[in-house]
UniProtKB/TrEMBL annotation:
Compartment(s) of residence: Membrane
GO molecular function terms attached to this record: porin activity; voltage-gated monoatomic anion channel activity
Lineage per the UniProt record: Eukaryota, Viridiplantae, Streptophyta, Embryophyta, Tracheophyta
Organism: Deinandra increscens subsp. villosa
Protein name: Voltage-dependent anion-selective channel protein
Keyword Transmembrane carried by entry: yes
Reported function: Forms a channel through the cell membrane that allows diffusion of small hydrophilic molecules. The channel adopts an open conformation at low or zero membrane potential and a closed conformation at potentials above 30-40 mV. The open state has a weak anion selectivity whereas the closed state is cation-selective.
Amino acid sequence: MNTGPGLFSDIGKKAKDLFTRDYLTDQKLSVSTISATGVALTSTATKKGGLSTGDVGAVYKYNNILFDVKFDTESKIATTLTFTELVPSTKTIVSFKLPDFKSGKLDVQYFHSHATLTSAVTLTQSPTVDFSASVGTPTFVIGAEAGYEPSSGRLTKYTAGISVNKPDSSASIILGDKGDTVKASYIHHLDELKKTAAVGEITRRFSLNENTFAVGGSYAVDGLTVVKAKLNNHGKLGAVLQHEIIPKSLLTISSELETNALDKTPKFGLAIALKP
């Protein structure tokens, strides 16, 4: 649908994903399958510490409507309905959880060749409204977002960002936390499949007079195996080994270590995702 600048939330997302995606500290098993009627079914079991949780989800697409329903072990039902092109160049998302009737949310996204607008409203007695806008092209994007609480008449958040994107790299600067934080990031892909990359990030927190530096990267050992690592100036080191055990099915092993406190026990995570 979108050949323009993309959503505001996409600014800095490539670098953020490389720093966060697949870094786990729990154990997770996920099994997916597709029924004869086209329903995608997923069952997930997660163990974190001594607590075990799980959920079962189903996704079905009918014309321009996507149904996503998830049941968890706490007897909660999360439902998301996505309508594509309900109005030309738009995507409408309705989400809610049962029995929590205060969790409803309506999100409308509008895409244009040189601009993207989004508006999200919580469906409660005291709703909050989030707006975001981005203008530019797929190569150069500038945007902002804000949150507003009508009941109190105050802004709950405001953020601005700019991004420069090329086929093999992306750089971004984001001013967030109501102007208290500036984050600059850069990611460079070293292969066509974008499995090998290097990333750097610096964050300045004005209220604390604190700077955080982080570097990381991913490396494709072969067509089936990828390793990742990240390190910040506070000594936190993370590593990931991900292997495609069978087509579309992944084994992920992750660890986290405090290099400035080697007496602390390292954290480990394990995930297995089986897909048809």
